Amino acid sequence: MQKKQPILFGVILAIIGVILFSAKAVMVKIAYKFDISSEHLLLFRMLFSLPFYFVIATLNKPSNPEKIRKTDYLWIVFFGFVGYYLASYFDFLGLQYIKAGLERIILFVYPTLVIIISRIFLKDKITKQQLVAIITTYIGVVITFWQELQLDSTNVSLGVLLIFLSALTYATYLVGSGWLIPKFGAITFTSYAMIVSSLCIIIQYLVFDRGNLINYSSEIYVLAILMAFFSTIIPSYLISYAIARLGASNVAIIGSLGPISTIILAFFLLNESVSSLQIIGSAIVILGIYSITRNSKKK
């Protein structure tokens, strides 16, 4: 019972975090109706998030400072750069060349990448339960978005490569989280990494854009604030807490729920239709995620 409760609590935290992150896609679709670029919307999201991360980072110190080396701070800069900045940037570039359905299928190879990276660099064992869960959830994601696959655009191979790089960089971040969170603590690590990511986005704007940011409608700023609070700040800490309890590999598998929750939220908030094939695929993904919880209960 002592192990069961933390594991189940970690699963709950991961699921809530994934759902909140997925709500970002719905808010982005709503925001695009007010004629804003992806770069500016991403910038607003992180600008409104940054003060909270600074305050939380100031109020919380590393949990195990005696275990921290100077190079660990450089690793935080690296993982902050690749995790929430570079992964998002590759994803944005890739979507210019391929359809969203194919993007989601490619992007959700990251649970497999997390386990492979953890095995190579951290010598973590790959369990049968993890393999079954990965195969099950990936089959579910493919079925869910099969109808959306359209390969009629040019430079498909370039788009596929960019989305794969997005999956690889995000998987690298998750593995790094599992390694550094025990040293810094979930709150401190997340705050530091998100500050780095936010600063990267701001620097990109200052170097390559410098467009006007004050002439948008009030709805844009409201959506950006909601996105910052509910789809950035809160889920980023929830995911880190979940990684501390479950490990990066299991949290990555639960992350397969992301595209499914996006479909459900879009159905209720955007009145988008849901096909029977998507329902079947979603059920398979949930079954794969449940297998992680079920096998954890036996420990």
From TrEMBL:
A Pfam family this chain is assigned to: EamA
Cited InterPro entries: AA-Vitamin_Transporters, EamA_dom, EmrE-like
Phylogenetic classification of the source organism: Bacteria, Pseudomonadati, Bacteroidota, Flavobacteriia, Flavobacteriales
Key word Hydrolase present: no
Protein's membrane topology: Multi-pass membrane protein
Main location: membrane
EamA domain boundaries: 9-145, 158-293
Transmembrane segments: 7-30, 42-60, 72-93, 105-122, 131-149, 155-175, 187-208, 220-239, 251-270, 276-293
Keyword Transmembrane part of the UniProt annotation: yes
This protein's UniProt keywords: Membrane, Transmembrane, Transmembrane helix
Protein name (database record): DMT family transporter
Protein localization: Membrane
Family affiliation: Belongs to the EamA transporter family.
